[in-house]
């Protein structure tokens, strides 16, 4: 058997599936398309996650577009992270092109222009359904990891969540969290420490700085109510096609903290909300994370561990996660090892370091006798890729050089007017694009602090009045004492003078009587 026949036998055997599958393109050998021999991806193993990698301009985004629109045709909804803003075209049919017809003729597969049902979502000021989540929904562990806090600081965050839970204080947005943090170190310090232990002011200051850093990346738009319900990602249209939810993130490229926070919370919420499903014939939801390096490049070890755990466990919920990035090295090895499907576009080697990276990347794929993988990775054309997946039994399929089919939808962005039209048809706008500002921890604690301050003010006024009364009483007592002394002194003097006069009078009277008697005696003689 010659090389061509051996290759076709391996491809036909390795990509022969019984269940639902997507035709990704046509197999290639020695840079020639094997017309009519298709590379297919089984939907049954889409929950085993995947990787789409390749240099800028090699066709990664169009591959993502192909997968999303074909999943939609099979009734599978998807969520796309549109960092560059070039995925909106999936909402309208392709206008066609002679090069598309030529490509599909080589593959031996018909081209049928079609759009997909689309819902635009946003966590910023982009048009679309506004996604929000409350601080309380994050929980203390995830919230601490998001802020990259140490063990001591994480303990304080746990105290804040516990305090709010015990006292029914809704912890909705960052303002609520900051208010509780301030209260913990001021008016409520004694109350907190009496029940939960001593809290370091240095640690609370560090947490406050982390919150401010997050706010500077626009996180205040994300935290709040109403919270987005992840079940709304599982919708289908009237024709049974899965809704393609496109998260417009063109204005968050410079805010990786906000992006990674959102992704981590979303994955955690999906895992916590969706029931266990096991292995389904096709996934319930597929999440495509474009520019995935934004999640990992500044992530702490704790955050990476959290992502790895979620990626490992979320497959049992019927959810697949695909990372789209330039180089497989952008994905941590522990996460990369969980990705069953790999679609590798061209890599460029302009430096010795890049050549070493290409050799290392080639080791992520199954061994093959038909390709020099390191060499081929640098020679892949636009719209070509090396592909391997898991078959329905979980066994890796043969590595195959593939000419990808063209997307059935527009390979360009929608105009602002077209985006507005899609948004105007949304059934979720009225549900989520209104901000609820119910009484929460900030208002409750502010009122509590004001009441405490009013009570303190009244107490101080009462103390001042009491002090005034005491001073007045002491003053009156001093005045009375002085008056009594004066009166007593005057009375004493008056009594003394009276006694003196009386004594004088008595004495003079006695003397007068004695003299009168002597005169009468002399007359008688």
Concise summary:
The protein is of the alpha/beta class and 525 residues long. It has helices spanning 3-14, 60-73, 98-107, 135-146, 151-166, 174-185, 189-196, 201-215, 256-273, 293-296, 301-314, 333-336, 352-362, 373-379, 416-424, 429-432, 441-524; strands spanning 21-29, 32-42, 50-53, 78-82, 118-122, 129-130, 244-248, 285-289, 319-325, 341-344, 384-388, 400-404.
What labels describe this entry?
Rossmann fold; 48% helix; elongated; 12 strands; 525 residues; 2 domains; single chain
Explain what this protein looks like in three dimensions.
With 525 residues, this protein is of the alpha/beta class. The chain has 2 domains: 3-132 and 225-404 and 415-432, Rossmann fold, CATH 3.40.50; 135-218. It is 48% helix and 13% strand. Strands 2-1-12-11-10-3-9-8-4-7-5-6 form a 12-stranded mixed beta sheet. Strand 1 (21-29) and strand 2 form a beta hairpin. It is elongated. The N and C termini lie far apart (196 Å).
Order of helices and strands: HEEEHEHEEHHHHHEHEHHEHEHHEEHHH
- Low-confidence runs of at least 5 consecutive residues: none
Say what the CATH topology of the largest domain is.
Answer: Rossmann fold
In one word, what is the shape?
A: elongated
What is the fourth-level CATH superfamily of the largest domain?
P-loop containing nucleotide triphosphate hydrolases
Instruction: Estimate the mean pLDDT confidence.
Output: 83
**Number of E-type strands:** 12
Q: Largest sheet at a glance?
A: 12 strands, mixed
Class based on secondary structure composition and strand pairing: alpha/beta
Report the helical percentage: 40-55%
């Amino acid at each position: 058997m010659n090389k061509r026949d051996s290759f076709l036998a391996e491809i036909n055997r390795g990509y022969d599936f019984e269940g639902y599958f997507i035709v990704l393109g046509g197999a290639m050998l020695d840079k020639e398309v094997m017309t009519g021999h298709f590379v297919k991806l089984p939907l049954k193993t889409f929950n085993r996650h995947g990787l789409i990698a390749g240099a800028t301009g090699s066709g990664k985004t169009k591959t993502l577009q192909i997968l999303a629109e074909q999943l939609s045709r099979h009734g599978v909804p998807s969520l796309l992270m549109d960092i560059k803003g070039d995925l909106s075209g999936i909402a309208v049919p392709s206008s066609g092109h002679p090069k598309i017809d030529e490509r599909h003729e080589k593959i031996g597969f018909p081209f049928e222009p079609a759009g997909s049902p689309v819902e635009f979502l946003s966590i910023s000021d982009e048009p679309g359904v506004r996604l929000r989540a409350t601080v309380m929904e994050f929980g203390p562990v995830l919230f601490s990891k998001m802020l990259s806090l140490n063990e001591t600081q994480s303990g304080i965050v746990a105290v804040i969540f516990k305090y709010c839970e015990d006292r029914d204080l809704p912890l909705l947005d960052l303002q609520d969290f900051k208010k509780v943090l301030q209260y913990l170190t001021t008016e409520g310090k004694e109350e907190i420490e009496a029940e939960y232990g001593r809290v370091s002011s240095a640690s609370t200051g560090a947490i406050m700085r982390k919150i401010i850093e997050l706010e500077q990346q626009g996180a205040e738009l994300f935290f709040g109510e109403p919270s987005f319900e992840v079940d709304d990602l599982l919708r289908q249209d009237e024709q049974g096609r899965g809704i393609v939810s496109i998260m417009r993130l063109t204005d968050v490229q410079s805010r990786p903290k906000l992006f990674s926070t959102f992704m981590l919370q979303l994955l955690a919420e999906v895992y916590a909300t969706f029931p266990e499903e096991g292995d389904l014939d096709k996934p319930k939801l597929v999440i495509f994370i474009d520019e995935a390096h934004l999640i990992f490049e500044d992530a702490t070890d704790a955050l990476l561990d959290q992502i790895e755990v979620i990626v490992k466990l979320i497959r049992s919920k019927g959810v697949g996660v695909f990372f789209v990035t330039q180089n497989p090295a952008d994905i941590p090895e522990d996460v990369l090892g969980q990705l069953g499907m790999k679609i590798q576009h061209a890599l460029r080697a302009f430096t010795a370091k890049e050549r070493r990276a290409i050799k290392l990347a080639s080791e992520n794929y199954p061994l093959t006798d038909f390709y020099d993988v390191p060499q081929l990775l640098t020679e892949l054309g636009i719209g070509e890729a090396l592909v391997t997946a898991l078959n329905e039994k979980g066994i890796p399929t043969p590595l195959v050089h593939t000419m990808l089919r063209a997307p059935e939808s527009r390979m360009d962005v929608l105009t602002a007017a077209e985006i507005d039209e899609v948004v105007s048809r949304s059934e979720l706008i009225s549900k989520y694009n209104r901000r609820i500002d119910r009484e929460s921890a900030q208002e409750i604690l502010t009122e509590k602090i004001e009441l405490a301050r009013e009570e303190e003010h009244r107490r101080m006024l009462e103390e001042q009045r009491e002090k005034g009364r005491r001073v007045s009483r002491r003053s009156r007592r001093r005045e009375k004492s002085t008056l009594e002394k004066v009166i007593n002194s005057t009375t004493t003097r008056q009594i003394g003078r009276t006694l003196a006069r009386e004594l004088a009078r008595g004495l003079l009277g006695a003397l007068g009587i004695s003299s009168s008697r002597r005169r009468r005696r002399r007359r008688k003689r």
